[in-house]
Write a structure and sequence with these properties.
single chain; 505 residues; alpha+beta; Chloramphenicol Acetyltransferase; six-stranded mixed beta sheet; 15 strands; 39% helix
Length: 505
Amino acid sequence: MEQLSGQDAMFLHAELDGLPQHIGGVSIYNQDTVPDGVVRFKQILSMLESRLHLSPIFRRKLATVPLGLGRPYWVEDPDFDLEYHVRHIALPKPGDWRQLCILSARLHSQPLRRDKPLWEIYVIEGLNNVEGLPPNCFALLLKVHHCAMDGATGAQFMNIMHDLSPEVTDPGKPPPWIVERPSKARMLTRAYIDMWKKPGQVFDMLKQAGPAFRRIQAGKKEQSFHSLDDKQRTRFQGKISRHRAVGAKRFDFEDIRAIKNTLPGATINDAMLTIVAGGLRKYLESKGELPDQSLGTGCPIDVRSPEERAAGGNMVGFMNVALRTDIADPAARLAAVHDEALSAKAYAEALGPRIILDLTDVMPGNVLSVALRAASSTGLTEASVVQNTVVTNVPGPPFQLYLCGAELIDSFSLGPLLPNMGLFHVVYSAVQNKKGTITLSFTACRDMLPDPAFYAGCLQEAFEELRDATLNKPRPKKKAKAKAKSKAKNARKKTNARKPATSTA
């Protein structure tokens, strides 16, 4: 019996009506690598059943403390039914990209049942008309509640379901499955003990707050960073509906790396933030809604230590970055975003990257839940702008994966929406179709983004403009002239050397 951390419970309590807090993704597979060319649903079920013991997420569900006096616990589900969690559906003809995105958005908008293990998988057949992909592909859509894992642990979860070659490996005999039934008395006793620990935890956090405040004041004085005070309101701020829209664009990893290498010190994330900024700028400009000042994004950061890498759940810090959507030139925007990211990192380090973890551990979850619901019902969640969007970077496997022999050739991620923030981006880097790729995907409130294909096109155009501005720069005229003069000078020397000597007598 394992208790949820404060941050895990935060994602559970933050789940409001119409705002499910699960993450997930869609993976697309080519069946040509399968011996008989077909992966059957029973094969997927059999593979998953043999690997249930490799992750506790599969078979555990929530057990709540009476009266909400403590954080919930993870317990084994004695009634676990694999076929409830794994469903089999198909796209109607022609089975194109638009249909896959619509279906993915519809499935992702539905909340997970709290009385079951908090995950679902949908095997989707009929992908026969997706541009750039071979016919007869199938997809796998995964949904897992955010309280069970974040992007980093999600990558580990995906590795469990895949192999490194078309041959399906045998995970070995599983250990005995022990189902523990927690008693209410035990949970209440634990809650009572935790209650007496709270004052000490609060005191420890306050001790950390003093040095953090001094570091922030010193950083502002030294201009190591600056705070983002002016928050802009866009169409993505407001009441979030129950309906979702999703889309994605895939880029060659080498192209993104070449772009970031044109600016000393720039990172892959800087380049991707610049593309997001360009896409937002194009989209809002087309609607006549582009603010004069820069939009901002929240960027989750993994704060795990090396010893904590194997642990599940969430260990996420946060930094706020100005996207510099007020800059039209893509190359200049990349330089500005790089500077803003450095400032945001310095601010996060001064504050302390784990302070959010400490805060959620001392905050009673039921208080947070009541506060969020009160704010939602009164409209307070829409009263102030925290950020315009979220851009999270999720590293995937740097090697080719296979599912029941089928080659993974494409994928995109799905994220949760937050109150007053109806647009969420995921940057997913991985090896797919035997090459390094970076997929930029988005999940949005459909009422705020009714034209996801157009927004995806804006992101593609933003990438192309940034690529052309950084990699296809024409040579400066001065250098060209200097080179021409040097060639002419050398030519004259050679000509003079070939001329016969003349007498002056």
